[in-house]
Amino acid sequence: MDLDLFLTEAEELLAIPSTADRPENLYRALEFVLATLGPGFTAERFESNGKPSALVYSGKTRPRFRVILNAHLDVVPATPERFRPRRDGTRLYGRGAQDMKISALIQARVFRELAASLPYPIALQLVTDEEVGGRDGTRYQLERGVRGEFVVIGEHSGLRIVAESKGLLTASVHATGRAAHSAYPWLGENALLTLMKGIDGLMAAYPPVTEEVWRTTINLARIETTNQALNQIPADATAWLDIRYPPEDSDFDGRTSDEITKHLSAHCPPGVTVTVANLDPPHKADPTTDYVAKLRRAAENQGYSAEFLRKHGAADGRFYYQHGIDAVIFGIGGDGQHGPGEYADVTTIEPYCRALTEFLGSLAFAG
């Protein structure tokens, strides 16, 4: 790999502000990466709710792939200077450097070099909606029949392997009361106070954490009321909850929205109702498969531990998990995800490229 040339190309991609509110830039980022592949491949294009994606492979007819390399090209919003990438020693700074445009470019490079010569089919899956849920990219393609045996998602991992990630559900908690003049509180019923009793019950069951733990967590994201007057008792109140749960939590994993609603409601007093808005399963891959063993060996051969990690955030692997397809996260190193100091660790770029190349090559001799 000509690292300087690669970094120049990477900086061009990082300079594209491909955020959900700029759909034209989602297309720009996608077309940029597709252009790096050159001719000779089929690029099957998809679009859902204005979010473009692509599936690239050799041949004219889409097969069941042995390996899918999955990458997202969208990023979270940032100030303009974050889209002016800069290098500082072994760090490449910019929005999307760690999460995950650099890994995406490496996956595209490895695909370009190997796809036509491998004795089995692989695909490069490029999506532009992971940061807003992944439902119009990876999930949309799966709904249209895309299948594989094993998936490598290029999210950052420092050449370690993420075989588990938490599920995600969002819920609202609502309380009703009775409006009255605040000078005569006995004539009313404060919905905010009732709501807080419900929140207290939920937080008692799932206490806030102060250090990393592998268990279900609840984030109280917002409390609101339609009341606009200081001297009025609120008649309604609503809270937003973001809940992350591991595959081992049987109160959530494998449960329906109605079952989870009942479970959460049991921690709330009368007058408080719970509504589950979105429910996405966790992700878990079998760490004992030959695919994982070969990927770990390829990373170890580059001098990395290839240890297993658990990811607290949701990722697109959960959509493969729903279809019984093993997916792991395996990407470059870096730090500052979604923050002002986000950077890619340049020293991990070439080892990551070599590890992916070795992994795919090793499968050629596995029958």
Commentary on this structure:
The radius of gyration is 23 Å and the shape is elongated. The strands form four sheets. It has a six-stranded mixed sheet. A four-stranded antiparallel sheet has the order 4-5-17-16. Strands 10-11-9-12 form a four-stranded antiparallel sheet. The protein has two domains: 244 residues, Zn peptidases (Aminopeptidase); 114 residues, Alpha-Beta Plaits (2-Layer Sandwich). It has 367 residues and is of the alpha+beta class. The longest helix is centred in the first third of the chain and has 18 residues. The model has no long low-confidence stretch (mean pLDDT 96). α2 runs parallel beside α3. It contains nine helices and 17 strands.
In CATH, the topology of the largest domain is named Aminopeptidase
Helix content: 25-40%
The CATH class label of the largest domain is Alpha Beta
Strands ordered across the widest β-sheet: 1-2-6-3-7-15
In short:
29% of the residues lie in helices and 26% in strands.
Which tags fit this structure?
367 residues; Aminopeptidase; 26% strand; 29% helix; single chain; 2 domains; alpha+beta
Summarize the SSE layout with pairings:
Elements lengths: L2 H12 L8 H15 L4 E7 L2 E7 L7 E8 L13 E3 L2 E3 L3 H18 L7 E6 L10 H6 L4 E6 L7 E5 L1 E10 L14 H15 L11 E8 L11 E10 L11 H9 L6 E9 L2 E2 L5 H11 L7 E4 L5 H6 L3 E4 L4 E2 L7 E3 L3 H15 L4
